[in-house]
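U6 snRNA phosphodiesterase
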Amino acid sequence: MSAAPLVGYSSSGSEDESEDGMRTRPGDGSHRRGQSPLPRQRFPVPDSVLNMFPGTEEGPEDDSTKHGGRVRTFPHERGNWATHVYVPYEAKEEFLDLLDVLLPHAQTYVPRLVRMEAFHLSLSQSVVLRHHWILPFVQALKARMTSFQRTFIGLEVTSGHAQFLDLVSEVDRVMEEFNLTTFYQDPSFHLSLAWCVGDARLQLEGQCLQELQAIVDGSEDAEVLLRVHTEQVRCKSGNKFFSMPLK
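Tokens:
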């Protein structure tokens, strides 16, 4: 039995975002569709008013120590909502048992590795939405998702890859409607198991991944454990979650 391949990879930063959370296209020169650029002037809010609502003007403080050393891909701005489209994976006890074997072995190579708190497969990059775009964005996603059947996937998708490309294609169309960054070209789909601060690919590639793969291949139940019955696509925007059921 050949179970799903294990891979080591690093996250990449998103493209620069304009103030409205839209992707800026070099040489485009356009602003909103059909509108001419208008000068903007922001008047300062009196301190007496700001003191009435502490923390609401500038938003939450970016403190990487509260997130295990992770740093935002793009800076927080009031009214901007980080948004991500993905397929959730509800980990069963047997899967977590397998992970409890894999992670300590990987930590002998990269001790700072930390287990993921939740598991998913990404269908989009993290993008920025203005608050008033969230519902239209989600409605457009739902309209694109209604025709898709459920499928099974592995740790790295080797079966069902074409169906995931179809899902990404529909998500990309919505991204383009809102002038946002689309997903990667020729993507591979992974279920992230652990993470660490910094690029540790050199320590993980080669011997470490081979040993981890041997553990997965040697598990009698790996083929079943690493399948996911995909019933829905989710969109997380800020602290809001939206679910789009598949047929």
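Helices lie at 47-50, 93-107, 134-145, 161-177, 201-204, 207-218, 222-225.
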